[in-house]
Specification:
Blueprint (H helix, E strand, L loop, with lengths): L7 E4 L4 E5 L10 E4 L2 H9 L6 H18 L3 H12 L7 H13 L4 H41 L2 E5 L16 H8 L4 E6 L7 H11 L3 E4 L4 H6 L5 E4 L3 E3 L4 E4 L2 H10 L4 E4 L5 E2 L16 H4 E5 L5 E5 L12 E4 L6 E4 L2 E3 L12
Parallel strand pairs: 4-5, 4-7, 5-6, 7-10, 8-11, 10-15
Antiparallel strand pairs: 1-2, 2-3, 8-9, 9-14, 12-13, 15-16
Helix pairs in contact: 1-2, 2-3, 2-4, 2-5, 3-4, 4-5, 5-6
This protein binds 5-S-methyl-1-O-phosphono-5-thio-D-ribulose (MRU).
Length: 353
């Protein structure tokens, strides 16, 4: 499915972490070595790595890199603070860092670096297993649609595939599971302006041989209204305890259009994406990113070089909220590693440690 690619891998023996640089995808596949805390923080902030689960995994490895340089309490607290400040919405970042802190703070400083590599790898391995389970739990939804009408026509948003995780993806995990099971599928992939993460989804699905069509974001409502979509599955960056779910900007509009057309809208996410302290979506911090992402668009120029093209002069006012919150009332189910639940019954699945 991943065609030999991997999003992240650790090399404790030479104190480095290898990442696939997603800012160059889908045009170039370039692996980069991270060797320091600052490089790990930069990779998350600049979105060389992205997607809520992968942000958490990278932060965990960032702690290991930091402790190779200095391992006392001050260094540990500093590393935690630097990584926590990288991106505000994906709660998996804090989940992973809380877990690293709990495992490391009581350890003798001299034993911390080794322990951090071990625990970060455990988080990565767990993420891969978790996402495989999400795929297995979401598969029956697609099986039932294909059984009823021949093909399951799925719409997704942004990229919640293997690129956004240690492996398998979240929203794309049921799609990959269905494809592997021979279930006929078609996926609507929306561009996801301003950063166009839909290009990553298109690239993933092309590698995997999953039939799909790329659309402009604004086409989604029309396709939902014209009965060309059977199910919408998206990922999440933070889900409040009441089931309100933050995901990439534009998700809410898809949820509204799906609801208006009685198309089921599902959120696929690990339980590490649930913020049990956020009682509802109002408590979810929404990242505001640079205006340059709205003013420019990145692609290939006539010489097949990656180029950024300016759409607007610098003085034009822009706003760039990176996420929105889909209210629980618009969500049919949340597909987790412990099974599917409604937003109302999310609490019965319980927190993960
Ligand atoms: O800004 P990004 O690209 O990190 O946002 C990613 C998303 O919104 C994904 O849908 C979400 O993180 C789920 S990834 C499995």
């Amino acid at each position: 499915m991943q065609n030999g690619f991997h999003t992240i891998s650790a090399n404790p023996a030479n104190c480095s972490v290898t990442i696939l640089d997603q800012t160059l995808l889908p045009w170039q596949t370039v692996y980069r070595e991270l060797r320091t805390l600052d490089e790990a923080a930069h990779a998350i902030r600049s979105m060389q790595v992205r997607g809520a689960p992968l942000i958490g995994v990278t932060a965990a490895f960032g702690i290991a890199l930091a402790l190779e340089a200095a391992c006392d309490d001050v260094a540990l607290d500093h590393a935690l603070a630097v990584l926590r400040a990288t991106r505000p919405t994906a709660v998996n970042l804090h989940w992973a860092l809380d877990r690293m802190r709990a495992r490391l703070s009581g350890r003798a400083p001299g034993a911390r670096a080794w322990q951090a590599w071990h625990d970060a790898q455990a988080i990565a391995d767990e993420d891969a297993r978790t996402n495989a389970a999400i795929g297995a739990h979401g598969l029956p939804l697609l099986q039932a649609i294909a059984a009823a009408r021949g093909t399951a026509r799925v719409m997704t948003h942004c990229n919640a595939g293997w690129l956004a995780t240690a492996a398998h993806g979240t929203a794309l995990a049921p799609i990959y599971a269905a494809h592997a099971a021979g279930i006929p599928l078609h996926v609507w992939v929306s561009e996801t302006r301003p950063r166009n993460q839909g290009l990553l989804t298109e690239w993933e699905l092309r590698q995997a041989g999953v039939p799909h069509t790329f659309i402009a974001d604004n086409s989604a409502g029309h396709l939902l209204m014209r009965n060309e979509v059977d199910i919408v599955i998206v990922g999440a960056d933070r889900i409040a305890a009441n089931g309100d779910a933050a995901n990439k900007i534009g998700t809410y509009m898809k949820a509204l259009a799906a609801h208006d057309n009685r198309v089921p809208f599902h959120v696929a996410a690990p339980l590490s994406t649930v913020d049990w302290r956020a009682t509802n979506g109002d408590a979810i911090p929404i990242e505001e990113r640079s205006a340059e992402e709205v003013r420019n668009v990145v692609g290939l120029d006539a010489n097949a070089h990656i180029a950024s093209v300016r759409l607007l002069p610098g003085e034009v006012a822009t706003r760039n909220p990176a996420f929105d919150v889909t209210p629980a009332r618009l969500i049919r189910s949340i597909i987790t590693e412990r099974g599917c639940c409604t937003p109302e019954t999310l609490g019965t699945l319980g927190p993960t440690v």
